[in-house]
Amino acid sequence: MDEPPIVVILLLGDSECGKSTFLSQLSQGQNSVRTKTVGLPLLRDLDQPFVYDVHMYNRPYRFEFYDTASPEDYKFLHPNFVILCYDISDRRSLINVQQVWQRVVIRHYAIRDEKIPLMLLGLKRDLRVEGEGIIYPQEAYRIAQEMRYDRYAECSAHTGEFMNEVFEDVARLAAKTTTKNGALSEPACLVM
Predict the structure, then answer these.
(1) Which among 32, 88, 102, 123 could disulfide-bond with 18, CB atoms 3.0 to 4.6 Å apart, if both were Cys?
(2) Beta strands at 50-56 and 59-67: parallel, antiparallel or unpaired
(3) What is the pLDDT of residues 25-60, one digit of tens each?
């Protein structure tokens, strides 16, 4: 049997935005995402990549997730898919996606391969409460569209809310990166 295609997935975003908790919850498998984060394993940078073997579209895939905030680590990767993460309860983290992390993607990855799909992922959904500084889904979705990202999603690793749906969306997009056409979204407008 052939080896499964390996898809390198890079999570970028400010420290403390929830990337590690998201991956830690994923490491518990599909049946545990409805539980609280109490007792979630601590994922260490030295243990990277965090590997998930998935079977879909009648074939196996190996997804290798990298969660890193250190430029020395991520600039040498050659990801097939980049997920830019922000904390829903912290407006500054979304601003940093636009002003810092987007530039990192362009500088290190877009030059090498313009076919890298991008996803904007809102984390800590359970912390969304009415008030100043909170990012609502419509606003983040609009920003994702303006920045020409291929997907937008949000979830809470703490409560497990939308974890399965987000992982399914990530898995579908990651699997498409192994196809001839890649995983980029079709352009909304065509010039005739």
Answers:
(1) 123
(2) antiparallel
(3) 887 765 444 444 455 555 555 667 788 888 888 889
Cβ(15)–Cβ(69) under 8 Å?
yes
pLDDT tens by residue, 46-101: 667 788 888 888 889 999 998 865 555 667 788 889 999 999 999 999 999 999 99
User: In the numeric block, which tokens belong to residue 165?
Assistant: 């749906």
The residues with which 56 forms a beta bridge, in sequence order, are 59
Per-residue pLDDT tens over the stretch 88-134: 999 999 999 999 999 988 888 775 556 788 999 999 998 888 777 77
Please state, in angstroms and rounded to a whole number, the distance separating the CA atoms of residues 37 and 43.
13
What's the rounded Cα separation, in Å, for the pair 166 and 38? Answer: 21
Give the dihedral sign, CA 126/63/188/149: positive
* Backbone phi and psi for residue 167, each to the nearest 5 degrees, phi listed first: -65, -40
Token pair of 72, please? 């020395």
98 to each of 2, 67, 81, how far by Cα in Å?
40, 19, 17
